[in-house]
Structures are given as C-alpha cells and as structure tokens.
Design brief:
Order of helices and strands: EEHHHEEHEEHEEHEEEEEEHH
Largest sheet: 8 strands, mixed
CATH class of the largest domain: Alpha Beta
Number of helices: 8
CATH architecture of the largest domain: 3-Layer(bba) Sandwich
Oligomer: single chain
Radius of gyration: 20 Å
C-alpha cells in the first residue's frame, strides 16, 4: 500500500495506522516559524498549496489564490518572499523606461519570488530569458507574472519556474514603463505586498500576508496531515464517505 506522509520540521515520531507505520514529524509551532523565517519558507515549499489556500480561507476568511489563468511553464513547486514590480502602459518610450524592473532583480535577495503586474498585459511578455536567467543566477525561487512570458526554451533549459497568463513573443519595450517596485500591487486579482509569502505548485499560486504567514503555515500543515492520513484509509476501505466522516477533510 502506498502511504504518503506530510513533510514538516521537528522531531520525528511514528504514527501507527492500519497495521503499519506512517512516519511523520512533529510540526513546529507558530512561534518557531516566526523566529526562523528560512525554516518557514522551507516548510511552505513542502506543504500543498491547496492546504494553504484552505487555511487562508478558514483563518482570514479571504480568498487569496490566483485564478486558473495563472499557469506554470512546467510543473513546479516553490515558495519565497515577494519582490513586487508594477508596469504601466506608455507608448513610444525606450528601454530606459524599463530600467526599474531590472533593478528590482539585481537588488533582490536569494529566495525571493519576482511578482510583476503588467497593465492589460495578457499579450505582452513581462519577462523572458534574460530576466529569468538573472533571477536564476541570483537565487530567486521563481516568478509570477500577471502578463505574458517569452523565451520558454531558455527558461526551461535552466529550470527557472514562471507562472504567467501564457506564452507570447511580444516585448514590453516601447509600450510600457516601470511604475514602481516593492510596493503593493494587484496580481491576477490578489493584493501582493513586498515580503508576502508566495507559494506555488501544480494547483496554482497563493499569497500569504507576511504578518500571518507563520499562523497560516501551522494551520495548513494540520490540514495536510489530515489529508495524508485520509488517503491510505480510502485505499484500504474504499469509501470516501467513511473517510470524510472519520477525518473531516475533503
């Protein structure tokens, strides 16, 4: 029987289930994560984004996930702190008008996630291979672009993950100008502040307010643990109704 254990940080313990042992780890507390942001981000990189989304809705009563339009260029999973960039329409400019979006990369710290909004930019590439290569070289975890992306062969070659509204061959140069970085932006309908936690996997992208990130993570880990305990129960007893009654998770 295939068993799936939730990933976490802490002291290992064995949990007896269905005649076997499922090895899990004692979850860290909210205070632990608040004191260790690096461990918190590492844990966010393992917890399922669907569980984070549920925890956000249950705790904050907010929907803080991006829509189905935001798609990855290849299957991926990452988490990091947001570096935000805003681009606005401006016809007839030069490449100098985009200098700020490049400076945001060069000033970004390892572990960052580049989050850009391009005004009405579904058919405009907000970034491509050059920017992605720079982010990769600087240790960024990924990018989330409310706009298009191009140069997919290069991005896939280096394995740099990007979520966007889709691939397009166009350029923003001459059509857009930099309107600010590390400011509050709205990316695919979700407000993103600099330093917010961005978590992404094959289910999509969620944004966690930095001030509540440790609290949300603990709640998400609990949801993950419940779901991962439910799966072998379903496989053994072949009943989703009994599983939901037993574990209360769907």
């Amino acid at each position: 029987m295939k068993k799936k254990a939730a990933l976490g940080l802490g002291t290992a313990l064995a949990v007896a289930f269905a005649g076997g042992l499922v090895f899990a780890e004692t979850p860290r507390t909210q205070a632990d994560y608040q004191a260790d942001p690096a461990a918190m981000i590492e844990a966010y990189a393992h917890v399922e984004v669907a569980s984070v989304s549920d925890a956000l809705e249950q705790t904050l009563h907010q929907k803080r996930y991006m829509s189905h339009r935001m798609q990855a260029i290849f299957p991926t999973k990452f988490a990091g702190f947001a570096v935000t960039v805003k681009m606005e329409k401006h016809e007839g400019g030069t490449s100098a008008d985009s200098a700020g979006m490049l400076a945001a990369i060069d000033s970004g710290k390892p572990g960052s996630v580049y989050v850009m909004t391009v005004e009405d930019g579904a058919d405009i590439a907000g970034m491509g291979g050059l920017m992605g290569t720079a982010m990769f070289a600087r240790g960024f975890k990924g990018a989330v672009i409310d706009g298009g992306v191009r140069d997919l062969p290069q991005l896939k070659r280096i394995g740099f993950p990007v979520y966007s509204l889709g691939p397009v061959p166009s350029t923003s140069v001459g059509h857009y100008r930099f309107a600010g970085s590390n400011i509050a932006i709205v990316c695919d309908g979700v407000t993103v502040n600099p330093g917010d936690v961005i978590a992404a996997d094959q289910d999509g992208v969620v944004v966690v307010p930095r001030a509540r990130a440790a609290e949300i993570l603990v709640a998400a880990e609990k949801l993950d643990n419940t779901e991962h305990s439910t799966l072998p129960f379903i496989e053994k007893f072949r009943s989703i109704q009994e599983a939901v009654a037993q574990f209360g998770r769907i």
